[in-house]
Description:
The structure holds two protein chains of two kinds.
Chain A: H1 3-8, H2 10-31, H3 35-55, H4 59-84, H5 100-121, H6 135-143, H7 147-168, H8 174-182
Helix pairs in contact in A: 2-3, 3-4
Chain B: H1 3-32, H2 39-42, H3 62-85, H4 87-90, H5 92-114
Amino acid sequence: MTFVDWISAPVNWVFTIIGLVVIFSGFRVVTSRNIVHAALYLVGALGGTAGLFLMLSAEFVAWVLVLVYIGAVIVLFLFGIMITRAPTGLDESLNSDHTALPALLASGFFLMMSWASIDAFGTQVIDSTGEPVPTEIIGESLFGRFVIPFEVVSFVLLAALIGGITLARRDLSPAEEEERSAV
Amino acid sequence: MSPYFESYLTVGAFAALGVVLVLGILGVASILRPDNPTKAKKLTYECGVDAVGSGWSQSYIRYYVFGLLFVIFDVEAVFIFPWAIILEDLGVFGLVEMLVFIGILLLGLVYAIRKGVLQWE
Lengths: 183, 121
């Protein structure tokens, strides 16, 4: 495929624009001096990723990303920011001086993932027929072949819930405990 | 172009139109209006009284528990969607699978109620 072929396909334009949005948002998440802005840039990065999934015809995964990550996890992040730090405005100390090692780690991880993808798939092209993957297929594999992992997920979620409540609740005094058990 | 991409092209066109509309209206307004900011004009309006302190404040930790419950049951909802589509093919076995899944998660809700974290004092 030559560069002219690549540039003449509109799908590559859309991919490039979404990819640049994701990269910019991801960069701003770590460089923003306002922690709330960082969380909102994370919304941009995740929204762009959902767009990439849509381009791969993975409709269900894309909307799950929007529903769970943008709709719920970011809300939890914002609550977490609001209960732990006050005031939550501009904070110069937010950016750490230690940038060399994280940058090295991130580039190393990027190189490793690039190498692994190229090594595994090479010049294979995803044959995107433009038909959305039917959600029935996901349901059939989830409740057929992967039924045990599916039930295990509920235990993972239960553990997360109980762990979160244990961390977030205020310990009751013995008198209050007694009062509550009497009700 | 396939109907799948065409339908999302419509979504994209509407999103782009929305952005253009908002930017256009604000842009026209910024050209037409007189621009003479003073310190008093930039103050946050609060029933005519000068605002005190910062707009940022710390909130109660009990909101966090509600956020956490929302995330957990949001993930549960995600699993219910593919289940609901093929429910008729799965039959009773599928129903039992989902009831076990929801039952285990409801234990978490029962735990939250018993520990009193959902009470608003």
